[in-house]
């Protein structure tokens, strides 16, 4: 049997390889774009003024050095990774001269707070109700819940977002439909600001939670239904296990490990869905920042947001992966 330290080291090596390949692919795909950010910026700076050719040449050299687009593509790739290791993505083209790291630093807490909270709520509630539905298969209310979950599961996040936007933004306007907080409320650690943040996050959060609950509900219900049979319950009771302890201490403990695998595999899809949801509700997170950067051809910002997103999602998967042996000692460490 291999040691847990070897298992951890192997998983960390996989994490590093995934991050390197993902960010490298993003770099090369972005650089295949026909849009040259330096020429685009020079064009915008010289559009309404007469500039000498010497000044334009000096400006072009300075901007190429600033954006890291000087030299062959391989040299640019090395420079990019050198900057990435110190989180220096250069200045943003669309918000020049603000550094990309500053823009990401402003947006990242909003996305992390929204995604972390929504994913935990959806995963916990979906597994809880799914386990109850699989264990109490004759419950009418849980059958109705299952029908609703089956209807929500295949629906994309942005469709739910648009539906909530129409219902609570126009037909029954009781919730804010854009922004992360009220513009007239100062951003500080106050109850007023916290309440405003919660109210503005309700619709984006519901868009993610409703789809997530349906997915986890169906998965857990299927797992528990396969485990729990009349013979299983009878043998457990003959062994001295009370009926109330069968579900939480025996059935769910075995069923949660596959659900953890499903969570790790779906983190990328959840993040992709959150990007569009943030844009629909003008939520000040990475999703809105990324889509705005794509529209403005700000590839420094695109690379920065994409790199941070790849690292964050891969780190979450790595964390779930290293928790497997703790949750289930049967996991092979070799």
Structure description:
With 334 residues, the chain is mainly alpha-helical. The protein has a domain at 100-297: MetI-like fold, CATH 1.10.3720. The chain has twelve helices and no strands. α5 runs antiparallel to α6 (140-152). The N and C termini lie close together (6 Å).
Number of strands: 0
Uncertain residue ranges: none
- The arrangement of helices and strands along the chain is HHHHHHHHHHHH
What is the CATH architecture term of the domain at 100-297?
Answer: Orthogonal Bundle
- Binned, the helix content reads over 70%
Give the structure's gist in a few sentences:
This protein is an all-alpha fold. 75% of the residues lie in helices and 0% in strands.
Summarize this structure as a short list of keywords or feature phrases.
334 residues; mainly alpha; MetI-like fold
Write the layout of secondary structure elements.
Elements: H1 4-31, H2 37-46, H3 53-67, H4 73-84, H5 100-135, H6 140-152, H7 157-171, H8 191-227, H9 230-238, H10 243-280, H11 286-295, H12 299-327
Helix pairs in contact: 1-12, 2-3, 5-6, 5-8, 5-10, 5-12, 6-8, 7-8, 7-10, 8-10, 10-11, 10-12, 11-12
């Amino acid at each position: 049997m291999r040691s847990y330290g070897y298992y951890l080291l192997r998983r960390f090596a996989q994490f590093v390889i995934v991050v390197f390949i993902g960010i490298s692919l993003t770099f090369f795909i972005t650089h295949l774009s026909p849009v040259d950010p330096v020429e685009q910026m020079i064009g915008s700076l010289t559009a309404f003024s007469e500039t000498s050719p010497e000044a334009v040449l000096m400006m072009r050299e300075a901007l190429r050095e600033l954006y890291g687009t000087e030299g062959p593509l391989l040299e640019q790739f090395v420079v990019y990774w050198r900057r990435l290791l110190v989180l220096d993505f250069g200045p943003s083209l669309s918000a020049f001269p603000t550094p990309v790291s500053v823009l990401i630093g402003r947006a990242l807490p909003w996305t992390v707070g929204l995604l972390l909270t929504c994913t935990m709520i959806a995963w916990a509630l979906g597994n809880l109700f799914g386990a109850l539905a699989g264990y109490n298969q004759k419950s009418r209310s849980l059958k109705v819940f299952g029908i609703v979950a089956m209807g929500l599961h295949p629906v994309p996040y942005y469709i739910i977002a648009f539906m909530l936007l129409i219902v609570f933004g126009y037909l029954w306007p009781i919730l804010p439909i854009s922004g992360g907080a009220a513009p007239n409320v100062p951003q500080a650690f106050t109850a007023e600001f916290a309440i405003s943040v919660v109210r503005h996050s309700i619709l984006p959060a519901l868009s993610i939670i409703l789809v997530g609950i349906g997915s986890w509900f169906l998965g857990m219900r299927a797992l528990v239904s396969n485990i729990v049979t009349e013979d299983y319950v009878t043998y457990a009771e003959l062994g001295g296990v009370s009926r109330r302890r069968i579900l939480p201490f025996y059935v769910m403990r075995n069923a949660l490990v596959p659900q953890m695998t499903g969570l790790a595999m779906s983190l990328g899809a959840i993040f992709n869905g959150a990007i569009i949801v943030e844009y629909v509700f003008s939520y000040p997170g990475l999703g809105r920042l990324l889509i705005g950067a794509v529209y403005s051809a700000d590839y420094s910002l695109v690379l920065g947001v994409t790199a941070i997103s790849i690292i964050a999602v891969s780190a979450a998967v790595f964390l779930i992966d290293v928790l497997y042996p703790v949750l289930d000692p049967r996991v092979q460490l070799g």
